Amino acid sequence: MGKQRGRLAIWLSAMSVLAISSTTLSPHYASPAFGNDVFSISAAKDGKADSSRTQIEFGSLSVGAKKSDNVLISNTGSRSLVLLVFARFTQLAEDGQTTLISATDSKPFGMASWALFGSKKAADFNVTVAAGKSVVVPIEITVPKDAYPGGYKAAILVQTTLGTGNVAVGKRVAMYMTANVAGSLRPAVNPTWMNDSVFYEMNIRQYSATRNFAGAAARLKELKTLGVEAVIINPIFPIGKSKMVGTLGSVFASTDLSKVNPSLGTATSFKSFMTSAKASGLKVLLTVPLETAAIDHQWSVSKSSWFKRNSAFNLEPVPSKEYLSYYEYQQEELRQAMIEDLKSWVTGYDIDGFIFSGATSVPRDFLDELTFRLQRTKSLALGTTDEIKSGYFTNSLTLTSNSTLLDSLALLRTGTRTKAQLTTLLNSEVSKYKSPSLPLNHLSSYKTMEAGKTETARFAASLSAAAMLSFTMPGAPVIFQGQEVGSIKALKPFDSDFIVWPTRAPATFAQYQKLIKLKKANAALFNEKFGGTARVLTTTSNSLFAFSRSTSTNTVLVVVNLSSKTLKARFNSGVTGTQFKYSDGRSVRMTATSYELTLPAFGFEIFTKTAVK
User: Fold this and answer.
1) pLDDT per residue over 304-329, tens digit each?
2) Residue 294 pairs with which residues in a beta bridge?
3) What digits encode the pLDDT tens for the residues 431-459?
4) 581 and 516 part of one domain
5) Can you tell me the distance from the alpha carbon of 231 to that of 285, in angstroms, rounded to the nearest whole number?
6) Contact 599, 567 (CB under 8 A)
7) What pTM was computed for the model?
8) Do residues 62 and 142 both lie within one domain?
9) Helix/strand/coil for 318
10) Of the four, 94, 243, 295, 412, which is 20 to 30 A from 523 by CA?
């Protein structure tokens, strides 16, 4: 609706009589059409036609408001008619003119979905009008709580249904109604539960030997033990078969954003997964491909104009991914259908947020409306797998994948990184993200899996240091499936594969547990507003990188050896007094100007006011 609401000064005539084919007529009952059937719709006042009004104008309304008016249905034909009265969505055509969605049996989006007609207040109202007579039909609209601020326009339609035979002709007349919803966009904001949350990313079809919702649900208790608070699940929608990659296809090649992939289970089993997650205290975020879909998406035939096409009207392919096609967001009806599909995951399954793939490639006004309306269902965490992009994080998104940090930390394994390079990285992280935008600090991701690698192989001996930095640098840490047990298996992304979980939790599990405890015990490391202020500290070696994170009441000191050799060096902490070492919990006496320590290759130490156990 965003584009339509921006140009409401251009209207069509208030009334039009249309002859349309049987394929576009609503299937509801009304009189068969004949050539001498003549009927009309107009605004009504005191039981008569109100010639002073060419459309029904409801004016400025607030969310939740109700308002009524009347239309007059007149039959100037020679026989009694049973006519169907209903409302349908309109959009702006390329020439800037308001047009009616041609398929009147399509879903009534926007203002059309707010309207009820007649004494029974029905969305589809049948009225009998005798020859030469008129009938007043009441109309009432109710502005829903998720109505996007701005102007709206829809068509009130009166029509006959089908005649008989292969060339049956029906008739309909239309009158426009308008309203303006008061309000304005609100700045993007994070839910309160995100303040100190650690995220966990999983792919349902790889997470267990059963490769389904039930198998994933059975392992949620392990995540509760680990200490994470939010789970990001990769797309769970039905997958396209045309030009499918691998034997199972890509989870990002969706054919229907309103349903679950039957290979993962049923809608009921996904609800059970959600129930188990909530019982374990876990929030669940769903990853949604927003820019592209499978080339055999359910709409690719029935709604062919909802996808970008070339001059020959063939689908415009995604480079190097022939199984994907691009949505055509210039189609306003597509936008509304997408919004309704995604709302259903919140209202039907109690999803706690979304991570949108390709969010910064879709029109910003669509993303603003999508996120505005989603946030009216409940407070949600909303983000993207894309890098941060100006404008998209003003009113819509907060979370963003921190691929810059991931790529930079992957270079630690060389043993040649310097404190100057890490200083530049830290400073750029602080300047790039402004609250409430929040980077998700990954060491691994779905893209890493597509490349056939694991974080264990990519980071080698520097993995522990990299994991520590993902928790202590500004941002929210994300543990990728299997990372907490040091999984060394590169999962096949497009074929049947699954994580082989150890029977007993390895040492790495305890390491991540402790990092989570560190984060939750120190407000300086919290997510909201980046926790404490980050400041690089002076060291006596180019291979020793040190920084502090501080609030008014809490300070965390982080020191890491960037080299592949044992290092003995000093750093200026800026802190005087007793501190506790993260490595062994022992207390040390620290001075602000100089503290000496010895660290093994890629070793690190963290100092806090209270011991982390």
Assistant:
1) 999 999 988 999 989 999 999 999 99
2) 324
3) 888 889 999 999 987 777 777 878 888 89
4) no
5) 6
6) yes
7) 0.90
8) yes
9) strand
10) 412
